[in-house]
Amino acid sequence: MGLARRPSGGEDFCPIAGGGRALTTSAIDHDKLSGIIGRLGEAAIDPAAWPAIMDDLCRATGTTGAVLLQADIRTPDVPSTVSMNEALQRYFAQGWHLADPRARGVPRAMSGEVITDEDCVTPDQMRIDPMYNEVLRPFGLQWFAGIGFWAGSASWVLTLQRTSREGAFDARDTRILAQLAPRLTETATLSTSIGRVALAGMTDALDRVRKPALIIDRLGQVLSRNAAADAGFDDEIKLRNRQLVVHDKQAMARIDRLIDAIRFSSESTARPHEPVMIRRTAKPPVVLRVLPIDGAARNVFLGARAMLTLSNLIPRLPPEPGLIAQAFELTRAEARLVSLLVTGLSLDAAAGRLGIARETARNHLKSAFSKTGTHRQAELISLIAHLT
What we know:
Blueprint: H1 30-45, H2 50-61, E1 65-70, H3 85-93, H4 106-110, E2 114-116, H5 123-128, H6 130-136, E3 141-151, E4 154-163, H7 171-177, H8 180-207, E5 213-217, E6 222-225, H9 227-232, E7 237-240, E8 243-246, H10 249-263, E9 276-278, E10 286-292, E11 304-311, H11 321-328, H12 332-342, H13 347-354, H14 358-372, H15 377-385
Antiparallel strand pairs: 1-4, 2-3, 3-4, 5-6, 5-11, 7-8, 9-10, 10-11
Helix pairs in contact: 1-2, 1-8, 11-12, 12-13, 12-14, 12-15, 13-14
């Protein structure tokens, strides 16, 4: 579903002689706009509400499409109306997010003005500019208005797009649209706060079961991590400049491809990702898994895109000896020995830790085999480990 293609006869671009302004301007419905301003708080609680709110905003302002864009870091994973899908795909595929002539007006937008094309390009430039001709006009688009607002220290612009038939934005329109700016800043600020709490809740919940986890944003930078992850980082798996770095080159290449897939995919695209095996030189391998971010945590202003969990990054705690004894009717001495074996200690090392002779430890182990129905140490350890 995309914008209608250009009508025959070139009717989508109708500049007057010597200039670029269309002859008519669509009216803004004040009552509808006020209602939408009152609904912006919905998007702070549920980021998935943005597209529907932006659709209603388009109907209230006589516009065809709307997009939320970060002013300095533009990525395709931002909320937009469905009507902008095709144009946005071309906009990012052809690199216009890096060379949009309308970006010249961003400083004015962030100072409180509502900017339009005429604040960024002249009518003659608009007529010959490649972006207008290759990205906008093929989809019937022509006129633009941008409302600047803040999400913390990050600058954002809500962009509204009109066709030539809907008309250019005039001074009256920009005065009316200016009332959106403070409400958008309030919404973005509240949304960011709620999102951070939600992200912390996700990683903290896993921390309680000693599962290392971290949240990455659309650029692959770590937004949040738990104490279990910090405890497991070493020279082979660590954070550098807020990014996950691993010594295993093959695994690092797979992580880089994962980040690229996240960076260049749409916010609405759900992509399954295969686990990444990270091999270490002197420790067991680590399995990195990718989990989706949902709800308030999937916040456009924070840019959280995925949670990474790291299995086996830190040693698993063995079950309490008392639990082992109760589960398999072992003596306390047998249970203490088995508990140490589960941590990876050898029989000799476990005997030394307990201060008993090696032959005594062997007898405890044989008794544990008999009571648990196992025959080998690895089999016993696997069985006991399932109690954690």
